[in-house]
Amino acid sequence: ALGAFLAGLLLAETEFSLQVESDIAPYRGLLLGLFFMTVGMSIDPKLLQSNFPVVLGTLGLLIVGKTILVVIMGKLFGISVISAIRAGLLLAPGGEFAFVAFGE
Q1: Of 18, 48, 77, 89, whose CB neighbour count within 10 A is largest?
Q2: Any idea which of 13-27, 51-65, 88-102 has the lowest mean pLDDT?
């Protein structure tokens, strides 16, 4: 999956990027569904259940930590506290790339 990501980054910088994007567009939904299905199938429910407190605690720490970091950065750039908190909470969940980066 990481190789496909890097190949996409490299192809985006070529003169063929628009052609590749238009060729892949019809399969976008299918490939996205396949990606999340693969990620879901790689999760071990027994391992998740046996480590549930650790997983929940780590998830909570990541969300709170990322929110605090975004709020601090927002304040440094002059954003109001409420807007900075909203931005922090919206940006707190990890992205899909985290599945790829930390999946192994």
Answers
A1: 89
A2: 88-102
Question: 56: which 2 tokens?
Answer: 């929940």
- Domain ranges for the chain, please list them: 1-42, 44-94
How crowded is residue 49: how many other Cβ atoms within 10 Å of its Cβ? Answer: 9
Average pLDDT for the chain? 84
Question: Is pLDDT of 102 > 70?
Answer: no
Backbone phi, psi, residue 102, to 5°: -105, 10
DSSP-assigned states of every residue in 43-79: S-HHHHHHTHHHHHHHHHHHHHHHHHHHHHHHHHTT-
Q: Residue 17 has which token pair? A: 């990027």
**What does the block give as tokens for 7?**
């190949």
Indicate the burial class of 88 (C-beta count within 10 angstroms; 0-12, 13-18, 19 or more): buried
Closest to 5 in 3D by CA, of 97, 93, 95, 94: 97
CA 39 from chain center: how many Å? 12
